[in-house]
Write a structure and sequence with these properties.
The chain is mainly beta. The protein contains one helix and 22 strands. The strands form two sheets. Strands 1, 2, 4, 5, 7, 9, 11, 13, 15, 17, 18, 20 and 21 form a 13-stranded parallel beta sheet that branches. A nine-stranded parallel beta sheet has the order 3-6-8-10-12-14-16-19-22. The relative contact order is 0.10.
Length: 234
């Protein structure tokens, strides 16, 4: 396990590390500074093991997360939080590279979890389920066998970054939300091979997606053409 002796402590790697196991992170407030190195493991799991009301506030910065072999249960990065256990994780200048056999690069689950990506580079699908996420620059690429670049069913804000899903059967964004938890695009560059950039699920209206800016490689993103890039499926 990775732990900090004192609240707010910074843990800094002095060299790249290869672990053939899961790295677990529990409660506490601290910074993991990769310092330009690579942390290779089957999975990096952030969760409160006791499900009490202790917070997790974690900053991970300046390096590479990767796995060469997928874990049978967990994605490369797994962030889980019960609603009573607020968990906030911020990635700053981190490259996340999931193995081709890993079906997800990042998974964030449940209402107490929030994640931010600041100038990160992620290879592999990102799933945000009943959680919050924010993207502030960087690149986010679906692999050839990924269904999506990003799946979200709650609150996501995209302020900047380049998001790519080139396959004609892939979805750049697959979303299922409501008007209280909106999928907001304020900026970014969006590259996709499918007919639409955004797909919604179930019976929710496509209009819960707010597009305030950004560059799409196909259809424009004005209010009049919103339905051309946010299409209802199901």
């Amino acid at each position: 396990a990775i732990s900090a002796a004192e609240q707010g402590e910074t843990i800094k790697l002095s060299q790249s590390i290869v672990l053939n196991d899961i790295v677990h992170v529990g409660t506490g407030d601290f910074v993991l500074d990769l310092d330009g190195h690579t942390l290779e493991m089957t999975s990096f799991c952030v969760e409160n093991p006791t499900f009490d009301q202790s917070n997790i506030n974690l900053i991970i910065k300046n390096g590479v997360f990767q796995n060469t072999t997928a874990h049978e249960e967990y994605p490369l990065v797994s962030i889980y939080a019960d609603e009573n256990c607020p968990t906030n994780v911020r990635f700053e200048n981190v490259t996340i590279i999931a193995a081709d056999s890993d079906d997800r690069a990042v998974e964030v689950i449940n209402g107490g979890a929030a994640v931010a990506f600041d100038n990160c580079n992620v290879t592999g699908a990102i799933y945000i389920t009943d959680a919050q996420a924010e993207f502030n620059g960087g690149t986010y690429n679906a692999r050839e066998n990924d269904d999506v670049c990003i799946y979200a069913n709650k609150g996501v804000t995209i302020n900047a970054g380049t998001f790519t899903a080139n396959g004609v059967s892939q979805k750049l964004f697959q979303v299922d939300g409501n008007k209280s938890d909106r999928f907001i695009i304020n900026g970014g560059t969006f590259i996709y091979g499918a007919e639409y950039a955004i797909y919604t699920l179930g019976t929710r209206p496509a209009s819960f997606v707010d597009i305030n800016g950004g560059i799409f490689n196909d259809t424009a993103h004005t209010d009049l053409t919103l339905n051309d890039i946010a299409v209802l499926r199901g």
